Amino acid sequence: MKVPPEAAGERLDRFLASTLGSRSAAERAVEAGALVDGIARPKSFRLEGGEEVELSEAPPAPVIVVPERPALAWQDEHLLVVDKPAGLVVHPGAGHASGTLVDALAGMIAGGDPERPGIVHRLDRDTSGLMVVARSQEAYERLSELVRERTLERTYTALVRGRPRSRSGRIEAPIGRDRGDATRVSLDTDTPREAVTHFEVERLWPEHALLRINLETGRMHQIRVHLAAVDLPVVGDPTYGVPEPALGRQFLHASALAFPHPFGGERIDVRSELPPALEAFLASLG
Length: 286
Hints:
Layout: H1 12-20, H2 23-31, E1 35-36, E2 39-40, E3 53-54, E4 71-75, E5 79-84, H3 101-104, E6 128-134, H4 137-149, E7 153-161, E8 168-172, E9 176-177, E10 185-186, E11 196-204, E12 208-215, H5 222-229, E13 252-260, E14 267-271, H6 276-284
Parallel strand pairs: 6-13
Antiparallel strand pairs: 1-2, 1-3, 4-5, 5-6, 7-12, 7-13, 8-11, 9-10, 11-12, 13-14
Helix pairs in contact: 1-2
């Protein structure tokens, strides 16, 4: 295949992923000996545009799964605010070449990484609720600036096992990849990054508490790791919290999103009600 001029500066593996349909297919192609102008190159090799890339064998046609488009909570020509259901992965990655939120919104979003167009913040697969995504490169850049400036206000609702020691609190503890298990995030890490979580109690039961969570930073798995660290594990979270077969998912919902519009400056304030399954589980607590 011929590398187009607009791919100049792109890594070999990213170019192959966009061409073959997934990162896993690109990894296999590089490992099998993909040649750039007749020379085997590592996946990090930077293309200049105009090269010929030869694969050792024809890759299978990728099977693209397009999920149902989630509800749009707000939109204009620059942005979409989607209400993501639990179980939907945000963007393609290991084990999820398609069937993601990005696939569902194909043609409606753009900007940033071609494999993650428009995505400036994420929700875990089993976290439901609100996400804002960009519809152009300029919108992506301006939204990303809001994230860096911490003016993208994200509020979550979480049910935890245990009773907080106070009606509100602030958890400040750097987190990163766990020293012993790279698939987990923890406080026991060689790569700590600042992480700050605020919470307020909304409702109490003898063994549970419903919390309103506000993020000051937005690290991967931050809420789940921080709450587990203060002995308030999220109900239904099999990794850091308390498994709950009757629930079938973690009780974590992105319930509100507020930010100044990156073009007009007016305040956008969007709310999302708890999904019926979470409301039903609260009712079961009495």
